[in-house]
Request: fold
Amino acid sequence: MDMQKTGIFLAELRKGENLTQDELGEKIGVTNKTVSRWENGNYLPPVELLQMLSKLYGVSINELLSGERLNDEHYKENAEEYIVADLLKKRKEAKKRLVLAVIVACISVLAGLAITLLGTLLPAPIWVTVGCVAFSVVVVGLGIAVCCVLTVDAGVYECPHCGEKFVPSMKDFVFGVHTLTKRKLKCPNCGKKSFCKKKLS
Reply:
């Protein structure tokens, strides 16, 4: 797979639809920087976004990964190889990121508690205690921010109403009420806001 070739093809398809990188990013829920990285050949879009791009541009995922339009003969040769390999790779990466997010969350919460306890239990002036509590809040806040960055696009969310699979924007992800496996999000397809289930692929 030639990532540079795929990037050039993605840029051509976007321009063919008269979309800027910003406009494409808004349509599929990523930043213009992410679109730029794909088009420069630095990264491949995750599987769920390849599906969105495939629908948007009217080409197959296989053609997106090949970086060109394919005739029937070439399509059959490449189809399964690209799709299966990428699905497995992305699922493995998503699992790693989710595990890392859990580790970061645990460490930041424990560190925050330890700092708070240290500041309140040791005999020290009140300003030291307040400083420790404030610092612990910052530590936990940074931990949560790192977790959000790691998990926002690790997999997709599925709308319970229409079955649409999508990656939410960072803003929707951060402010969406959530449980361990579901998050309250607005579906880009049907527009309904509900608890959408997290799926790795």
In short: Residues 96 and 120 are 36 Å apart (CA to CA). The mean pLDDT is 86. Strands lie at 156-158, 165-166, 182-186, 193-199. The first helix runs from residue 3 to 16.
